[in-house]
Amino acid sequence: MRVLLHLCCGPCAIYPLKRLRAKGHEVSGLFYNPNIHPYQEFRRRMGAVRELADAANFPVEIERKYGLSEYLQQVVFHEQERCPICYEMRLVKTVETAVAQGFEGFTTTLLYSKYQNHGLLIRRCEQLAEAHNLSFVYEDFREGWQEGIDSSIEMGLYRQPYCGCIYSEQERYDKRWKKRRKAEAAARAALQSQ
Ligand code: SF4
Fold first, then answer.
1. Is 85 a residue whose pLDDT tops 80?
2. Whose CA is nearest to atom 5 of ligand 1?
3. % residues pLDDT > 90 (the chain)
4. Domain containing 73: what range?
5. What is the per-residue pLDDT for 54?
6. Could you say which of 23, 48, 138, 144 would form a disulfide bridge with 158 (CB–CB 3.0 to 4.6 Å)?
7. CATH number of 49's domain
8. How many domains does the chain have?
C-alpha cells in the first residue's frame, strides 16, 4: 500500500519507517508541525528529518513554514485542550495531503511516543480514515521505543528535549512550575474524593 507517514521529528520516524517497510508498504513522509517552537528548535527538527530522509532513501515532503501564529491561534484560551488540538491540526493536514496525492493509507509517528495520548490518536485517526476513505495503518510503534532511541543516537540525529510547543518547553525546564502543577493536581484530586 502507498502510505503517508506523518513525521513529528526524525528520531521518532526511524522505527515506524522500518516497520512499515517490513510489511511491504511504499512509505513517504510528511513533516508538518506548526506546534514546534521556538524557531531554532523547529529548524533543528526539520534538519534531523532531512538527514533521515537522505540516509534511508525516504521521500519526504517538508512544510518549512514556521507555524507559530497558526498554532497559537488555535490553542490560546484553550491551553488545557492543547494536545488534542495539536493532534487535530497535524492529522487533518496529513489525511488531506494523502487524499490529494493519491495515497491509500496514512499513519503517524505520534504513535511511537510513550508521552502522547495513544488512545485518542487511534480514535481520531480511525474517524479521519473513514471520513476520507483511507486506510489507517495502525501499529503500536511504542514497542520499538528503545530501538528507535538507539538508532537515532547511532545516526547522530538531533534528539529533542521536549515535546514541541512552548508550553511543553516550560514543563520540561521550569521546576517551580512543575511543583505548582503537581500541587494543583493533588488539590483537585482531594476535592474530588470528598
Ligand atoms: S505538549 Fe506536544 S502534543 Fe501537546 S500541544 Fe504541545 S507539542 Fe502538541
1. yes
2. 83
3. 88
4. 2-192
5. 98
6. 48
7. 3.40.50.620
8. 1
